[in-house]
Amino acid sequence: MKSELLKKALLAATLFLGATPAAFAGTGDLAIGLKGGTLGIGGEATMNLVPGVNVRSGFNTLNYTGSASKSDIDYKYKLKLQTIPVLLDLHPIADSGFRLSSGILINNNKVTATGKSQASYKIGDQTYSASDIGTLTGNIDFNKVSPYAGIGWGNAVSRHSSLTFSCDLGVMFQGTPKVSLAASNPITAADPLFKAELDKEIAKVKDSTDSIKYYPVVSIGLAYAF
Predict the structure, then answer these.
(1) Which of 176, 177, 174, 111 is CA-nearest to residue 146?
(2) Could you give the CA distance from residue 186 to residue 173 in angstroms, rounded to a whole number?
(3) Do residues 105 and 85 touch, judged by C-beta distance below 8 A?
(4) How far is CA 58 from CA 70, 81, 149, 152, in A?
(5) What is the CA radius of gyration of the chain?
(6) 157-210, pLDDT tens digit by residue?
(7) CATH architecture assignment, domain 2-117+145-176+216-225
(8) Among 67, 86, 120, 164, which has the minimal tally of Cβ within 10 Å of its Cβ?
(9) Are the CB atoms for 46 and 125 separated by under 8 Å?
(10) 188, 195 in Cβ contact below 8 A?
(11) How far apart, in Å, are the Cα atoms of 173 and each of 85, 128, 199, 206?
(12) What are the sequence ranges of the domains in the chain?
């Protein structure tokens, strides 16, 4: 039953994302909106499946650059947020905006970083000169399909109003971060002893980023029903 419902939701999401608003004009069964929050800024569409059950999908994105230090290495990083949600909303109380939401997010969130030292790098338990390493680059990414569960307020296809305010509070389970680090100097990069120390450094980074496998989702938005 659950798998059939998910298949129906995915099919419905595909259909309504490809539909034009004119196809639903006057029915109140389709709404489009804008939203912003911890997943970035984006838009979404909502369609009613059966009374009390809606399907939502859309697109969220945001790029952010910054700097951070780890093991005395200064990194410049770029955070790229990019997700595509496919969610089912259950409204257990008739004529109430309260909803329970679950589904998946196609998760393309990732972090790229570059560490460059003028003197030396401390990697693992060893210290290397800047000429030995060159530039240290790193990536952090996550499971491409991430389950989601949450609660929220607002029924975009409610027949009470064409314009609806909404909010969401939930968690995206994006898994343990996948971390990689690499040195630009090919001679050092091929050294087995260096690789062992680099693995230690990767483990340190994983420990410091482990908490974001449970990514908090908080958002607000406005939607208009056709």
Answers:
(1) 174
(2) 36
(3) yes
(4) 35, 14, 16, 16
(5) 22
(6) 987 888 999 999 999 999 999 999 999 999 898 999 999 999 998 998 888 888
(7) Beta Barrel (2.40)
(8) 67
(9) no
(10) no
(11) 13, 37, 25, 16
(12) 2-117+145-176+216-225
The pair of three-digit structure tokens given for residue 2, joined into one six-digit string: 């659950």
Write out pLDDT tens, residues 196-212: 999 998 998 888 888 88
Using the structure block, give the residue that is written with the tokens 């898994």: 175
Give me 127's structure tokens. Answer: 């210290």
Rounded-to-integer distance, Cα 192 and Cα 85, Å = 42
| Range 119-124, long-range pairs (CB < 8 A, 24+ positions) | 121/73, 122/71, 122/72, 122/73, 123/71, 123/73, 123/194, 123/197, 123/198, 123/200, 123/201, 124/196, 124/197, 124/198, 124/199, 124/200, 124/201
For the record, the structure tokens of 132 come out as 């030995």
